Every structure is written in C-alpha cells, then in structure tokens.
Amino acid sequence: MDQNSNSNDDESRANDEPISDRPADDGEAKAKPSFTFKKDDDADEESEGKSRWLRETVIIVGIVLALMFVFTQFFFRQYVVPSESMEPTLIGCAGCSNDRIVVDKMVYRFSDPEPGDVVVFKAPTSSWDGMWTSPRSSNPVIHKVQDVLSLFALAPPDENNLVKRVIAVGGQTVQCREADGKGVTVDGKPLHEPYVDKNLQAQNFQMSDGTLGAGSCYGDDFGPIKVPDGNVWVTGDNRSNSADSRAHIDDELHGTVPVSDIRGKVRTVIYPFSRIGGVGSVNPQG
C-alpha cells in the first residue's frame, strides 16, 4: 500500500510540473515558429533612399539652373556666328562648323564700347533683319517653353543678333571716298586695320565678277556721317562681304547702333576646338 501511494504521489508531482520547465524534444523545438519583420524594414529603407536621391537630384538641378540663369543674364552668354561677314576673325557660313563665341555681358555695364571691340548686338531697326526669321515655334505652348529655356541659354534668344567690329563711337565722323584712296576714315584720319584680309577681299572681287571688294572702300562710297552720342558705327572684318552700318545708312539711325542694343563684347571662340582662342580688340584709330 505504502509503495503504491508513493508511486502515485510521484506521478502526481510530475504531472503538476509547468510545461515550460520540461525539456522539449527535438520535434517540439523544430515546430516552434519564428517571426521577423525585416522585409518591411528593408522596404521602408529602400523607399526612403529613393526619396532622398530624388530630393538631392532636384536640389542639384535647381542649383545648376540658378547658376546658368545668373551667368547667362549678367555675365556671359554663348552665340553662334551667323555669317561670313567677320572672316577671318570669326568663321560662319552655310554648311560649315560656325564659330561658337562667348560674349562678356558685364564689361559695358562699367565702360563704353571702344573702337576695335568685336560686339554682338540686337538689330536696331527692321532694315537689319533681312532674311532673318524667329527661331521660335509657331505652337504657342512650345514657344513659351523656348522662351523659358532661353533664360538659361538652352535656346537662342528671340531676336536678330549680329556680330561686327566697332569702328567709330559717338561724336566721331566716319566716311569713305574711293577717289582719295584712304579707305574708311574717322574724323578725316585713315584707319589701320590689320584684321581686314586683303587677299580675301580680292577673292570676293573675283568670285562676284567685280561687284564685291573693289577699291580701298571695299564697297560703295559713303558719308560723311556723324555718329550720335550713345551710338556706334560697326563694320565686318570681311569688309566687301558684310551688310554692316554702310548698308543701313537710309534707316532712321543712319546705320548706327545704339549702345543699349549691344549684348556684349566677344571674348573668345569656344568651338570648333581647332579654333579655340581669344578674340582681341585692335583699335583701328590707334
């Protein structure tokens, strides 16, 4: 009796032990599920990384555009030489690699154009427009987009820009008389113009059957014309093949260009690479 009673008590005590205190067999250990939330955490980190990348990209693009706007509007701008009128100083012609030039927009905020400066200017009167057409699209939406792009130099300005050399400034009198053999004179004094290639003028004369490049004026007689204060008189270095101030004597400004229409002074050629270099100012009155 006593032995059986002890045996039952042992079994009862064994059955009363908490399950957690009992060693689990291998089957139970393997059956225990394990939970992880790493996948959701990784997705959140990936989303945050993309968001950070997008934010940084927007900031960088914004900074670049801001710098382009400031430089384009106040410091420098690129232009394309539209014709051969400034050869050999600047090259431009149909079907060739026209020179890309950089214009200094700051210089004339503190000083006036001087004789010999090569400048880009907006056509001051309609007589200068010739065959020029606007580079803007006829579609009003695209037109507005091009206007905005132009603010950042990503599209050309909607104006007829030309490039010539300043020969005379306000208050000076310019003229040319073939009969005196002096060429262009300013205040009665002949100019020293090393930038005019006489061989090129002779070629123009031959190729045009005598209509271009004749005589010391390399064109028709003109003047005397007194340049108004605040204006300049400009000519192309390819004198016999340039529709410059001489070609617009009959307009309301008598061929002169207001300083306010000058966009800047040409500093350098940046393309094509074979022609990279500075564009100097040679004072023809010096």
Automatic annotation (TrEMBL):
InterPro entries: LexA/Signal_pep-like_sf (IPR036286), Pept_S26A_signal_pept_1 (IPR000223), Pept_S26A_signal_pept_1_Ser-AS (IPR019756), Peptidase_S26 (IPR019533). Belongs to the peptidase S26 family. One of its GO terms (molecular function) is signal peptidase activity. It is an enzyme of class 3 (hydrolase). It is found in: Cell membrane; Membrane. GO terms for biological process: signal peptide processing. It catalyses: Cleavage of hydrophobic, N-terminal signal or leader sequences from secreted and periplasmic proteins. Keywords: Hydrolase, Membrane, Protease, Transmembrane, Transmembrane helix. Its EC number is 3.4.21.89. One of its GO terms (cellular component) is plasma membrane. Residues 1-48 are annotated as: Disordered. It comes from Gordonia phthalatica. It is a single-pass type II membrane protein. Residues 10-41 have a biased composition (Basic and acidic residues). CDD domains: S26_SPase_I. Its main location: membrane. The active site is at S85, K164. SUPFAM superfamilies: LexA/Signal peptidase. Residues 55-270 form the Peptidase S26 domain. This is Signal peptidase I. The chain crosses the membrane at residues 57-76.
